[in-house]
Specification:
With 195 residues, the protein is an alpha/beta fold. It has one domain (3-100, 132-182): 2-Layer Sandwich (Double Stranded RNA Binding Domain). It has 4 helices and 6 strands. A 6-stranded mixed sheet has the order 1-6-5-4-2-3. α3 links the parallel β2 and β3. α1 (3-19) crosses α4 and α3 (59-75) crosses α4. The protein is globular and about 65 Å long. 23% of the residues are buried.
Length: 195
């Protein structure tokens, strides 16, 4: 298997993990950051862009992500533009990343304190077994750029341990839940003026 196919397979797993079950939207770790000096009410249109240096999944996974984000942005009052003309007020891009983590699982087989007629009065024995589980954690990051200012103005990330599903319809529904959660607080409320 080529490196490109391995990366593509891992990125597909990222999406699958982010969407694997109906409870995923609640289980994801979602974080949002944005430029507090920006008036987000001025943004009315957007155009999809590719992020330089990012690796993207296969076409089906890419379409699933974009459809979910398009649907969510539409509910926020934004209109997608097919070309990057003067009428575009935001550029939208995403990227997927994975990282390997380890989880230690320890299982005990008993033991405890003995005392008062139950034995020798010290701490009891017992055995424990620790296993190491290798996990893959995936992160989907969605970025909003202001083309006039030429800078990133908003980002949301969703991170989840990978556990992909083979049900495409369920994955699309859960991708929509994930996108909704990522954009839950968009547009951010304007900062209150200081007194």
């Amino acid at each position: 298997m080529t490196t490109t196919r391995i990366i593509s397979a891992r990125l597909a797993l990222v999406l699958g993990a982010l969407l694997a079950s109906a409870g995923v939207a609640a289980a994801q770790d979602v974080a949002t950051n944005y430029d507090t000096s920006v008036d987000f009410s001025k943004y009315k249109t957007y155009h999809w862009v590719d992020i330089q240096g990012a690796t993207y999944p296969n076409q089906l996974t890419d379409l699933m992500i974009r459809n979910a984000i398009d649907s969510t942005l539409k509910t926020k009052g934004l209109v997608r533009m097919d070309s990057a003309g003067d009428n575009v007020s935001l550029f939208v891009g995403y990227q997927l990343t994975t990282q390997q983590t380890k989880q230690l699982n320890t299982f005990g087989t008993g033991g405890g304190a003995w005392g008062y007629g139950g034995g020798w009065g010290g701490m009891g024995g017992g055995m424990s077994t620790t296993t190491v589980q290798n996990l893959t954690e995936g992160t989907l990051a969605v970025d909003l750029y202001d083309p006039a200012m030429k800078q990133l103005v908003w980002q949301s990330t969703a991170t989840k341990t990978l556990n992909p599903s083979s049900n495409a319809q369920k994955n699309q529904e859960n991708m929509q839940k994930a996108a909704n959660k990522m954009f839950k607080n968009y547009p951010p409320m304007p900062a209150k003026p200081k007194n």
